[in-house]
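Feature request, filed as a ticket because there's no other form

It would be nice if the structure record came with a short human-readable summary line next to the tokens. Right now we just get the raw output. Example of a typical job, pasted below so the devs can see what we mean:
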Amino acid sequence: MIRLFFSVLLVSSFPAVGFGDKAFPSKGAVIQLAEEPLTEVLRFRPDATLFINRDYRLAESPEELHGMRLLVSDIDAVAFDVIEDGRLIIMTPPSIDGADSQASKLEQAGFSRMEIDLFQLFGDRAINQVEAYEKEVKAGESYAFDKWVVVAGFKEARGTRDWTRMHDDLPFRIYPDDLPNTGILFIDQQKHGRSGHAGITLTECHNGDIIAFYQAGPVDDNWGGHGSAGWSEYRRSTDGGETWGPPV
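Raw output as currently delivered:
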């Protein structure tokens, strides 16, 4: 069985703006990494990939960080140069037994602890909880960290594959913009014993509303959930696909 996701919501008649483009205290820095074809930029939100060499996913996303750009890099080491002044946020575990913390190195480099409570970056162990540090970095500065840190809050990370900017020049908006991503759960077909492969349709109304249809029929004698018997339901969005009304 599968759960039905709208991994991509294409919204017409909107300028190209990114998910999470909200007013933070100051503009993010521009950083430059050495050419590393696997390094990526995604958005800081639950289930986002955190490292290129580990299958760890973001567990908690504090409001102060949610939607910021996130550098998906090597867990063992990351290095970059600052090429444009701005804010930079770096997360690392506190200095406790068993944790691979870079807290002391961050403090020595002039980063200050943010007023964000300790939170679970991934997994459920205390050593994978993190503190968030910030600094107004300057062009010409260089930083290198060992295992492990997570870098976020920048405006641009050059030398990476930035999925949040792949669609900037398109005449529509994609939400979430950091493709490929895990999508936003639209309807949980697995919970109802349905495959969810039948009757999926999107249509845009003259007034700009979007209506999304999906299978909602019974599961009894339904070929193990793979039949298309029953009926359809739909949900309506009045804001270009960012939020959806109740099933009808």
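Something like this underneath would help us a lot:
The first strand starts at residue 4 and ends at 6.
Residues 103-108 form the longest helix (6 residues).
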